[in-house]
Write a structure and sequence with these properties.
single chain, outer membrane lipoprotein receptor (LolB), chain A
């Protein structure tokens, strides 16, 4: 009987190690499928244009990113422009069509949630190890009838992400993020589709779907010069 439990314990330990190894293997194959960490490390700027289908309306969208530093999102709805700027530790919203720009500063305690947006590698879990994520294999599932591996990733603040990586392509099809605040938990899913290889050697999704609507990217340019004055707190009208 003692021998039985000893053997069972060894086998269970082996299964646990195998699952941990599977998580890293799956994530590494995903990273290679979208261009490899080396190519993603070369991305310093990115400009993406498209349409945000938000609650039945179509919003013209332009995102301008300097990796790890700042993101400006320009939106036009019904001819009225607005913009939002996010930096490492703060953000604000502007309404340049009004008589005077109104700028609402975003409190710094929310800045942590901006980091995945400012770091494109993090949004695809390319640098999950160096940013302190713990990865664990969480079984299999399907997204739109497409078989996926599930990987549970937990960050330093105990926020949990579930990454759904397609078996056939190794692309990330969905991220489910669970945010804890006090005794409450909320899930924020994002679906990714229509992956396209860019000239820089990286492959990115051109379609996104959230609980608020869908975004269709028309064009993505990387490593083009960016006038960083667009991230200034107040933009002077011409």
């Amino acid at each position: 009987m003692k021998l039985y439990f000893l053997i069972a314990g060894i086998l269970m330990s082996g299964i646990t190690c195998l699952k941990a190894q599977d998580a890293d293997d799956i994530l590494q194959k995903h990273i290679q499928a979208i261009g490899g960490a080396e190519n993603w490390d070369k991305i310093k700027t990115m400009k993406a244009t498209g349409i945000d289908k938000y609650m039945g309306a179509q919003v013209e969208l332009t995102n301008t990113l300097v990796t790890g530093k700042a993101l400006r999102m320009d939106m036009v709805l019904g001819g009225y422009p607005t913009y939002q700027v996010l930096t490492i530790n703060k953000g604000w919203v502007g309404f340049p069509y009004s008589d005077k720009d109104k700028v609402d500063t975003v409190v710094e305690e929310n800045a942590y949630s901006y980091l995945p947006i400012l770091n494109m590698k993090r949004s695809q879990f390319i640098d999950y190890k160096t940013t302190g994520f713990k990865a664990a294999y969480a079984g299999k599932d399907t997204i739109d009838a497409r078989p996926c591996y599930k990987i549970k990733l937990t960050d330093k603040k105990d926020n949990v992400y579930i990454a759904f990586i397609e078996e056939a392509t190794w692309y990330l099809l969905r991220t489910e993020r669970t945010i804890k605040k006090d005794d409450d938990e909320k899930d924020f899913p994002i679906d990714y589709d229509n992956y396209k290889k860019l000239d820089a050697g990286i492959t990115m999704p051109m379609s996104y779907r959230t609980i608020n609507g869908a975004i269709e990217m028309k064009k993505i340019e990387v490593n083009q010069p960016v006038d960083e004055s667009i991230f200034a707190h107040l933009v002077q009208k011409k």
